[in-house]
Amino acid sequence: MSVVSNLADAWGFLSSNFDQFIRLLRQHLELVLISEGLAIAIALPMGVIALRNERAKGIILGIGNVAQTIPPLAVIALVFPFLGLGFKPSVVALFIYALLPILTNTIAGLDDIEPEVIEAARGMGMTEREILRKVRFPLAVPVIFAGIRTSVILNVGTAYLAFFIGAGGLGVWVISGINLFQIDQMLAGAIPGAILAITLDSIFGLIERRLGKTSSIDALPS
To answer: Of 37, 63, 90, 188, which has the highest C-beta tally within 10 A?
Structure first.
């Protein structure tokens, strides 16, 4: 079968099961956004701690690197006795995978500020807390958001594995389609996931540009 024919069949399957598609897409989006929000909320404070303490930086990055090497299904197996099957363990697994790119970029972004800029801010009488809030974070926006965008794209793909523990998402169609050799069903789940990843990346890129334009200029001490 040609590519055009496969795409037409996928569209036909999606159209015929549109209500289910909306439900699966909503589940997929919830898994990604909740885990991503948790990762951002944890990674930013941990990045600040690492900035202020070299020993803590080594420990935090070490834990993050180890966590990233554990397969999502293994994480699910580890949390299953405590959280059971379904949505919660999937969010935990996705959160762990989302954490490292944001954490490493946050540390790099906050730490990689020109020393002259920091000294100028101190010369203006800024405290370390003010420097962090008014200088480091604004200038680190592009680097931090690069980590967030990478993390989002990884999570959209990893969220397909939520199917295996009953958390739903587009993986229901993709993995079932593979098992049943139904190309139309598989593509009907895979293509929207790719579009979702591109869309979320574009949205975060737009937020990054808007924040970068307004904050980076204001952050430079005059």
So the answer is: 90
| DSSP character at residue 70 | S
Q: How far apart are the first and last CA of the chain?
A: 64
**Rounded CA separation 15/47 (Å):** 45
How far is 68 from 146, CA to CA, in rounded Å?
17
Q: Which two tokens stand for residue 63?
A: 């834990």
Q: What span, in angstroms and rounded, lies between the C-alpha atoms of 208 and 185?
A: 35
How many structural domains are present in the chain?
A: 1
pLDDT in tens, the chain (222 residues): 578 888 899 999 999 999 999 999 999 999 999 999 999 999 999 999 998 888 888 888 887 777 777 777 777 777 777 787 888 888 988 998 889 899 999 998 998 888 888 888 888 888 888 888 888 998 899 999 999 999 999 999 999 988 888 888 999 999 999 999 999 999 999 999 999 999 999 999 898 888 766 554 455 444
- C-beta of residue 75 within 8 angstroms of C-beta of residue 92: yes
Boundaries of domain holding 36: 3-219
